[in-house]
Protein: Ubiquitin-like protease family profile domain-containing protein
Amino acid sequence: MPDDVELVVDKPVWIETPQQPDTASCGVLIVAQAHSYLTGHEDQRKYGVSKDDVKVMRLRMLWVIIHHSKERAMSEGDAAKTSNILQRLQDELK
Structure:
């Protein structure tokens, strides 16, 4: 750095974001926060997160992984169970 340039650092500003309710949900919150940024859901970036919210986030992530997997075809019985689970998740997220 040249001698005539002064480095100025502003005081840090805290940004309100959801806080994890325990010591085990940081990964879930990181994925949820990234998803909200990518999808433009501003309202989901600044709210309190309960343990139940984390459970729903985990279920949503699991659902996306299972539902969008193209590794193998699903039996009709599994497809019916999957549809039931999807409906329950959608009801939970309302």
User: Anything to note?
Assistant: The chain has one domain: 26-93. Residues 26-93 form one domain. The chain is about 50% helix and 0% strand. The mean pLDDT is 78.
